[in-house]
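lol so apparently i was supposed to do this last week
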Amino acid sequence: MAQPVTQEQLIQDPHPIYAKLREDAPVSPMQMMTFSGRGWVVTGYAEAREAFTHPALSRDGNKYFGALDTGLDERVRAAMNHHMLNSDPPDHTRLRRMVVKVFTARRIAALAPRITEIATELLDAVKPGEPVDIIDAFGFPLPIRVICELLGIPSRDQDAFREWSNVIVAGAFAGDKLPVAAKAMTDYIHELLARKRTNPADDLLSDLIAVRDEGDALTEDELTSMVFLLLIAGHETTVNLIGNGLYLLLTHPDQLDRLRADRDLVPSAIEEVLRYEGPLRSALPRFATADLELGGVTISHGDIVMISPLAANRDSDRFDDAETFDVGRGHTQHVAFGHGLHFCLGAPLARLEGKIALELILERFGTLELATELDQLVWRPSGLMRGLAALPVSVTLAA
Ligand code: HEM
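anyway here it is w/ protoporphyrin IX containing FE bound
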């Protein structure tokens, strides 16, 4: 009989495990750490797309969170979970519409010069000739500074955010630290909201406080949850886009050379990083509100379904040479940003940050090499994310 897969194996090397599952059954039963009911994992591309839009698969965690043992007290849970990614229409429609009013394409595009400035400042501190952890020096601080500035979080508080969101993303792996970090972050956001109410500034948070939809404002819990969502969705994922992107280029030197020779390929390379080694391993739960058929299996009312974008994006029924990392592949309708109603609201920002980060790195560093053995690299323990804990590199400046 086949050996059961351990969490550790799934974190360090998920692809062969997902490939086997996809081959055997694109929707397979799985055991969940924090859910006692029946769980499923979706590893096929067509099945993932269907699950994203299935009317009997709900995204409303609040209705089901009673069944998940998160160890959080009620006040913190309410403040963390009333956001659009935890809701179905009509609530989802209202919440998303309110954010879209202030988180506009124009606002995102206008961030480009500031993102370039922050990225340049961070790269200035990377010394040629000395091994440096490029995730710690660049991949982490860039997106957190961008999202904090966008929201209007003072720079002195950004380190605390990094700390809390690290713990929150680790989820069940963080043990006792999770409720402490979640409470600290909730208290901080409440204080920040109070300050912005009396002293509005030119930032997204002040705009979110002021935004009205048919006369309705966001409630305190909805605002707090929105900040949680934007901060965590907005930076933990982008860190991994940058980190995984650099890791892939370092381990595929022919693709790095190709990109150096043709910088116009950068947007296509970003899409390929998202497809091939995207930031989210399996973070996308859906709750069955009725019995349904998916990928040839019967899912029962009350089951939980986890969609794995990482697995779906390597499905050879959808992608030619799915196991080949090809920076010229272009846009492929990968599902790294999801699909349907909950399609990532921050995708344009993530793409912009990824593009600026990669362009600056290519421009500045003549060589970029891994400063450790491949088998020494460690992937961060998380039920959700796919990202390296550290990526030591050594660089030389371009001539
Ligand atoms: C939703 C991925 C960056 C904000 C999602 C979803 C995915 C995703 C897969 C859908 C989840 C589901 O259907 O269950 C990513 C990736 C990113 C990224 C891979 C980086 C490479 C960002 C950024 C922001 C952001 C930078 C904000 C500034 C959101 C929000 C939602 C969302 C608000 C919820 C949308 C809704 O429920 O309607 N993201 N994201 N994301 N993302 Fe992102």
